[in-house]
Specification:
Layout (H helix, E strand, L loop, with lengths): L1 H10 L4 H32 L4 H6 L3 E4 L8 E6 L2 E7 L2 H9 L31 E5 L10 E3 L15 E3 L6 E2 L20 E4 L2 E4 L8
Antiparallel strand pairs: 1-9, 2-3, 3-4, 5-6, 6-7, 8-9
Length: 211
């Protein structure tokens, strides 16, 4: 029987011991290959894990409203977008009714806002003078320029009640972010979910209200 094994091995040009050694080395090589493959895959899997920066970019943002005076505006960043916080003066609020006939969607039926901000001032009625709005033109995503002064303006017109003007293609919005008729943009600027408590506004959360 042993002679047959030796004869068979010799026919392949290799002894029985050589064949055993080859099987052993092949097993080791395969093992290292599997380990190497695991190390090669690990960085790819880790690269698919969101970074803390990416997670934080979508996190709620807070701001102290007590630091904003009537008629003043500040911008904060939320989800990579500029968000306007404008405390409108009494004169600014009165101007919202004066431009209704010039607006494409005065009731905000086609735009994006929480249900509690779908009104003439597009605000939470607990703080009606406060405009919280994504300052992104709904035409091609440019950043509109604020025009807060009441009165003649080269871009907003001779009887301007204040608003926002997009320098890219000339779209105009009132001080509630509602788009004017006959401009490239066709929808009002978006209002993000927000909640107010003790003069602190949290953008990105609606305080349990339906958005």
């Amino acid at each position: 029987m042993a002679d047959n094994q030796v004869s068979s091995a010799n026919a392949e040009g290799m002894s029985v011991e050589d064949k055993k050694r080859r099987r052993f080395l092949t097993g080791i090589t395969a093992g290292f290959g599997a380990v190497g493959g695991a190390f090669a895959v690990t960085p790819f899997v880790l690269s698919m894990t969101p970074s803390e920066r990416a997670k934080n970019a979508g996190a709620p943002v807070q701001h102290d409203l007590s630091k904003i005076q009537s008629g003043q505006m500040v911008k904060v960043e939320w989800r990579g977008k500029p968000v306007v916080l404008l405390k409108r003066s009494d004169e600014m609020m009165a101007g919202l009714d004066k431009v209704v006939d010039k607006l494409a969607d005065p009731d905000s039926l086609s735009s994006s806002q929480p249900v509690y901000a779908q009104n003439n001032s597009r605000s939470d009625q607990s703080s009606p003078a406060l405009l919280v709005m994504e300052a992104v033109c709904t035409h091609l995503g440019c950043s509109p320029v604020e025009k807060l002064a009441i009165g003649p303006d080269p871009q907003m017109g001779p009887d301007s009640q204040g608003g926002f003007f997009c320098p890219c293609h000339g779209s105009k919005f009132d001080l509630a972010g509602r788009v004017y008729k006959n401009v490239p943009a066709t929808t009002n600027m978006s209002v993000p979910p927000f909640a107010i408590a003790d003069d602190i506004i949290t953008i990105g959360e609606d305080g349990g209200r339906n958005a």
